[in-house]
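Is this the right way to post structure tokens for a design question? Let me know if I should format differently. Anyway, here goes:
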């Protein structure tokens, strides 16, 4: 009887698994809904839709490298109350034209639902563009040493430390889609490579490392790795 009972339990379990697979994106577990990843979707888009942090989704699914997740994978969204969407959460294709109004800030919202914030409050000491015969790829914001530097948007840290010449101690955050931001001359970095950060999270402290005449934050916004004027993306 023991073997028969075990066989029945296994059969019931197998039936539940088959039903879960058949339900696809509409499946759920006691921990939250199960999202079947579609082409072009990523953890950032899932985070915004379900209202659950990227880090929580990553840990719940034991994801070590977000670049390795593929379409068709089933991801538990821990603690989410929303049902999986009926349509893809993939961003607008790269060939999409810029919106007629709102400029680059509106384009970032359209492509990836990104809404950049100021990393440090203050008046600029240097703007984007040519400066003393050289390109200045960002903006400089003077601030007291140790002032918290906050992530302009959610993303993953792809560099934290020195080794980039004049930038001194620098943090680079990769955001959804085609965007990344750079935070340079820091006195201290508060995050490490591979960390996921939320918008507004403290990631560094203002300093004057590298080629800096005084304490300030050098901030860049890059699209497809090309620097663009951050003021066109900031409110």
């Amino acid at each position: 009887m023991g073997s028969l009972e075990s066989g029945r339990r296994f059969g019931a379990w197998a039936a539940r698994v088959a039903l879960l697979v058949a339900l696809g994106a509409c499946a759920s577990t006691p921990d939250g809904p199960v999202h079947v990843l579609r082409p072009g979707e990523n953890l950032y888009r899932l985070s915004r839709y379900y209202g659950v942090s990227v880090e929580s989704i990553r840990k719940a699914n034991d994801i070590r490298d977000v670049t390795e997740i593929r379409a068709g994978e089933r991801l538990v969204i821990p603690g989410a109350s929303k049902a999986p969407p009926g349509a893809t959460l993939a961003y607008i294709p790269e060939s999409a034209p810029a919106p007629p109004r709102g400029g680059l800030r509106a384009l970032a919202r359209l492509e990836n639902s990104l809404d950049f914030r100021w990393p440090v409050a203050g008046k600029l000491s240097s703007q984007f563009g040519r400066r003393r015969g050289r390109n200045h790829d960002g903006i400089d914001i003077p601030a007291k040493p140790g002032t918290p530097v906050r992530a302009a948007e959610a993303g993953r840290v792809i560099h934290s430390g020195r080794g980039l010449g004049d930038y001194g101690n620098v943090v680079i955050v990769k955001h959804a889609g085609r965007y990344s931001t750079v935070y340079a001359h820091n006195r201290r970095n508060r995050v490490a490579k591979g960390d996921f950060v939320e918008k507004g999270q403290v990631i560094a402290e203002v300093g004057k490392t590298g080629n800096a005449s005084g304490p300030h934050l050098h901030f860049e916004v890059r699209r497809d790795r090309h620097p663009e004027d951050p003021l066109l993306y900031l409110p």
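Format looks fine. Someone answered above. Worth noting: The chain is about 20% helix and 25% strand. The two ends are 70 Å apart (CA to CA).
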